[in-house]
Amino acid sequence: MTAAAITELDLRVIERVLEMGSGYVLDFSDRTFAGFFYDFGVDIGATKYCGEGTSKAKRLRGFLRAEAPPLTGRVLAELLKHRMLNGDLPKDTDHAAFAAIVARHGGGVATAVPQTNEDGLLKLIFRPEVFARLPVDAATSKLLVSRMEEAGRCVENQAYLAAIILAGSVLEGMCLGFGVKHPELANRGYSAQYSKPAPPFYEWKLAEWIDVLGRMGGFSQNVVKFGHALRDFRNYVHPAEQLARKFEPDKHTARIGFQVVIAAADDLVKLKST
Predict the structure, then answer these.
(1) Which in 52, 77, 113, 230 has the greatest CB count within 10 A?
(2) % of the chain beyond a pLDDT of 70
(3) Is residue 190 within 8 Å of residue 182, measured between CB atoms?
(4) Where are the beta strands (DSSP E) in the chain?
(5) Could you give the CA distance from residue 63 to residue 42 in angstroms, rounded to a whole number?
(6) What is the reported pTM?
């Protein structure tokens, strides 16, 4: 066991912060838990992580005991961010202890997510001319405007899930379009964020685009926070996932998803001009 290995004391802190007492890990379903680890190139269902059992909590413990920094640190940092982005901050003592574990295992400095301005987000107005100035090609810009207009009609007609799925596709489309237009900038941002070479753009997950552009200053904290929420909601395109989570999108949820895409477009246009 190396000096950087996860200790039993570390695990007790991690279990409290990630609410692992009953076998669960935060609000993850089996599908979203697997998807979270897939973003790190990890098959969390692999046999080597299931020595104590197959619940999400037991597999996470198995992963932390089997793997080494900086992978464990990056995973823990993202798990803490997931809890904080859902508006649920750990107690100060637990947060400090968890942050110390993250730093010791190569995950960087885990700080509290700044408060965001939801009211300000909801006041933004969709302007197609802004999308025309996005750092993407003209055909992509035209398609994104068309999808946003359709998403707006879905909100007005109470087709809230359809609005969320469309909004998520626009956010991903503008991120990919930015990468295609500025490959060197995007690849450097990915390498800085994840300490490894960037894969081809079409293999990037939306979570990676959001975090990389946030790190680069391309996305504000508002867009990072609510962009991740939109990404989570978009997963309910799978009926089984929606049933498992008992998710019923309402007008407010759909509007937030629509508005965060407007804010993201504003941010990318500003990034283009710097």
Answers:
(1) 230
(2) 90
(3) no
(4) none
(5) 9
(6) 0.60
Residue with tokens 């995950």: 107
Residues 226 and 254: beta-carbon distance below 8 Å: no
What's the pLDDT tens digit per position in 16-31? 999 998 899 988 888 8
For residues 208 and 157, what is the distance between their CA atoms, to the nearest angstrom? Answer: 32
SS3 of residue 117 by DSSP: coil
Q: For residues 231 and 211, what is the distance between their CA atoms, to the nearest angstrom? A: 12
**pLDDT higher than 90, residue 183:** yes
Q: Which of 60, 53, 52 is nearest to 28 (CA)?
A: 60
Q: What is the pLDDT of residues 95-152, one digit of tens each?
A: 888 988 998 898 875 544 444 466 777 888 999 999 989 988 888 899 999 999 999 9
CB-neighbour burial class of residue 160 (10 A; exposed 0-12, middle 13-18, buried 19+): buried
The domain spans of the chain are 8-104, 118-273
Residue 270: Cβ within 10 Å count: 13
Say how far apart CA 219 and CA 268 lie, in whole Å: 7
DSSP per-residue codes, 243-254: HHHT----HHHH
